[in-house]
Write a structure and sequence with these properties.
alpha/beta; five-stranded parallel β-sheet; 47% helix; elongated
């Protein structure tokens, strides 16, 4: 009999152990077991993207799609002289060439086209970053329009932010996931 506060889980009456066992088996049967070859391909893909397999697998499981691009905030790129990507970030970006799209979201007043021209081998595209005072829907529309313009799916794009405000772009744009800039650019993967 259900009562207020009952979550419809297994009752703690006689037979509880068997029901718990049956639920556990049913849940395990629902979990996908990947063939070894597919697992090897995915581990290699994670290595090619320069991220650990656990992060790659969790992003892939949450979005249901492979990682095809990274969206970097201007803060994550640590722009120098207003337009140049920080030297300690450059090698990591070059390593992503041909592995995934690299888009920079650049804050005003810096011109995104100038940043792209200055960092041509490091970034595939740039766009204006959502402003701190933009609404949730305006942020969503800006991010989705940028990805659409470059033919990239939102659920295949991972956000690389440097601040808590930028982390919110992931939910607003319905992106695949988030990896903080310090972790992404660290050499301890």
């Amino acid at each position: 009999m259900t009562q207020i506060g009952h979550n419809n889980g297994p009752a703690l009456e006689p037979g509880f152990g068997f029901r718990k066992h049956a639920w556990g088996r049913a849940r395990k049967a629902l979990m996908k077991t990947l063939p070894l070859e597919i697992l090897r391909v995915r581990v290699a893909r994670a290595e090619r993207l320069g991220i650990d397999y656990r992060s790659y697998a969790s992003i892939r499981a949450a979005s249901g799609h492979d990682v095809v691009a990274f969206l970097f905030s201007g803060n994550a790129l640590e722009m120098r002289r207003g337009v140049a990507v920080a030297p300690d970030r450059q090698a990591r970006l070059i390593g992503l060439k041909d592995a995934a799209g690299r888009i920079g979201a650049i804050y005003a007043p810096t011109d995104p086209d100038t940043v792209l021209a200055e960092n041509a081998p490091l970034l595939d595209a740039t766009t204006r970053a959502p402003g701190f005072t933009e609404s949730w829907s305006a942020t969503r529309d800006r991010l989705r329009a940028t990805l659409r313009r470059h033919g990239l799916p939102a659920d295949g794009t991972v956000l690389i932010p440097a601040t808590a405000v930028e982390r919110d772009w992931c939910a607003a744009g319905k992106l695949a996931g988030v990896i903080d800039a310090e972790r992404f650019f660290s050499s301890s993967w």
